[in-house]
UniProtKB/TrEMBL annotation:
This is AAA family ATPase. Pfam families: AAA (PF00004). PANTHER family: ATPASE WRNIP1 (PTHR13779:SF7), WERNER HELICASE-INTERACTING PROTEIN 1 FAMILY MEMBER (PTHR13779). GO terms for molecular function: ATP binding; ATP hydrolysis activity; enzyme activator activity; single-stranded DNA helicase activity. Belongs to the AAA ATPase family. RarA/MGS1/WRNIP1 subfamily. InterPro entries: AAA+_ATPase (IPR003593), AAA_ATPase_RarA/MGS1/WRNIP1 (IPR051314), ATPase_AAA_core (IPR003959), P-loop_NTPase (IPR027417). Residues 52-173 form the AAA+ ATPase domain. GO terms for biological process: DNA synthesis involved in DNA repair; DNA-templated DNA replication.
Amino acid sequence: MTDTRPGLRSGATPLAVRMRPRSLDEVTGQRHLLTPGSPLVSLASDVAGEQGSVSIILWGPPGTGKTTLAQAIAHGSSRRFVELSAVTAGVRDVRQVMEKALSDRDLFGVSTVLFLDEIHRFTKAQQDALLPGVENGWVILIAATTENPSFSVISPLLSRSLLLTLEQLDDDDLGVLVDRAVADDRGLGGRFALDDDARAMIIRLASGDARRALTALEAAAVS
């Protein structure tokens, strides 16, 4: 990789975060989930709240866009976005989010998207704490998992949610992401020229993982 301009920002937010799509139109891959009229597209454009409070479970490998989709849906529909990780959160955290979401809905008419990453790490009791908010429409739950939800998500929650499967990104998708990150002002801003061999190596090493591709690109840029 050749530096064509001096001055890569030091201490910047990671490239993968800076390049996260701000809308579904910017999402690369997952075409089977983003066709016109699909549940995700309809939910993201539902500013008036006409689609109700359908909850979603996103099942797929790491780096396929689960967090990105949740954020884009919240942004596109002007909903408040709250993120919890099942690795660090507990029942108390869930209840606090639910109480705030109910208050915001009733007092200000603001709907909340609760994105719960790695839901498979929640125990049955912890998953049970999600049910009141899901059943009563206090939040739109978007839960992400890399494990089969049939074995890792409790039946009451599974039956109240739409299960969508994400696919690994193909090489063409990864190429689009890498090229965009090289050129975009949010990314490397054209300061670096990526030769074909380096580009191909980054795509190969990423193995369908967008985050891994952008992390490798960033490492190459600062090396």
